[in-house]
């Protein structure tokens, strides 16, 4: 008998003994159960407790359950556990259980990476706004004031994003890369790998697009390494970690705000949606990748949650990438086809593709906004700034039901001494 099976057996025996005098109606009045729509994990469940019920109240009803709990979830949302069907039914009999949903896995939203084999020029010019010449089309488009700009420069505010905490919830970051200038903090590791390193060659590139010295939309944000595995319960737990730190940072001098970049998808989860709302209500702006299936993004979570700004991917030809998800759930697009970023090993740049690398350009621009305006900027107001500065109708093959807005920093559009547009 396996260890998990034996623990379930002990819970069943103990619970049946304690419920021997219960009325039949009580035994079969079960809390709702919702199977995973995608990436289902067999035998793994999220148990959402009702408001006003404590975990201890629940454990009193199902003695011995504590040994089966995988994660205690933040915001009093309950827990995740590995349960046999019969144990699951015992759990659902507790009046303190609001619902149970099957736990789900997920995936990173990148395509195949390519090593850079072309000459690369990263010389810089210092002006009232800095300009990096030869940084590739993605950054060039990000600060251009026209379509198909003739110059190759990216204009940005000096020290853009300084004081902003940009959480990269991903596969880890190669924080020792010179491009990050020592601004990476290994903060949270909720993956199965004890190392904070990026062994997937994903999170480092995401961080590079958001906030590296040469390739980042913002140049000086604090990059917080939140290494996760893409399961719904782990995402919920990591959101709790970030909210706790964000709240503690509010009293720190020089703190400008918090942003989370999520370049992954998991199966839809009611409990994870509640955790996203908690982060949003705490004042944290969140960006999510739309996905790379070339289909409607309405089924891509957390892109479709309503609490994130969802980003699709476009190419240098101003066309929506064939792989990019699309539709009404997608708020903006950003460059995400063969974009320069930081590799997880070595000092040479790498070219990456996918909505995973489009999303952090939006997160980086948000870091610029927060760095300039400070922590009183709400997530809703920050999303409005993305809209005010976006390039409208640039994407030539945009579906009719999708908003045709491309992320732009606004640095070459603003008037009246402002660094970017503050309104329409």
UniProtKB/TrEMBL annotation:
GO terms for molecular function: serine-type endopeptidase activity. The active site is at residues 170, 202, 356. PROSITE patterns: SUBTILASE, SUBTILASE_HIS, SUBTILASE_SER. Residues 162-390 form the Peptidase S8/S53 domain. Coiled coil: none annotated. GO terms for biological process: proteolysis. Keywords: Hydrolase, Protease, Serine protease, Signal. Residues 1-25 form the signal peptide. InterPro entries: Peptidase_S8/S53_dom, Peptidase_S8/S53_dom_sf, Peptidase_S8_His-AS, Peptidase_S8_Ser-AS, Peptidase_S8_subtilisin-like, Peptidase_S8_subtilisin-rel. Transmembrane segments: none annotated. Gene3D superfamilies: Peptidase S8/S53 domain. Belongs to the peptidase S8 family. This is Subtilisin-like protein. It comes from Aureobasidium melanogenum (strain CBS 110374).
